[in-house]
Amino acid sequence: MSRPTLTKGKKVSSTASPSSLKSSGVDRSKSPLLAKSVRNGPSRLQVATRGKQFLSDKVGHFTESVIREMTRQAMMHQAVNLAQGFPDFPAPAEIKQAAQQAVAADVNQYAITWGAKNLRNAIARQMGVWQAITVDPEKEITVCCGSTEAMISTLLAVCNTGDEVVIFEPFYENYGPDAVLSGAKPKFVTLRPPATDNGEWTFDPKELRRAFDKHTKAIILNTPNNPTGKVFTRGELEMIRDLCVEFDVLAITDEIYEHILYEGTEHVSMVSLEGMRERTVTINGMSKTYSVTGWRVGWAVAPERITNAIRKVHDFLTVGAPAPLQEAGAVALTLPPEYYSKLAEGYRVRRDHLMPALTAAGFKCFRPRGAYYVMTDISAFGFDDDVSFAKYLVQEIGVACVPGSSFYRDARDGARQVRFAFCKKPETLDEAARRLAKLRRAQR
Ligand SMILES: Cc1ncc(COP(=O)(O)O)c(C=O)c1O
Question: Is 12 among the domain residues?
Answer without folding.
Answer: no
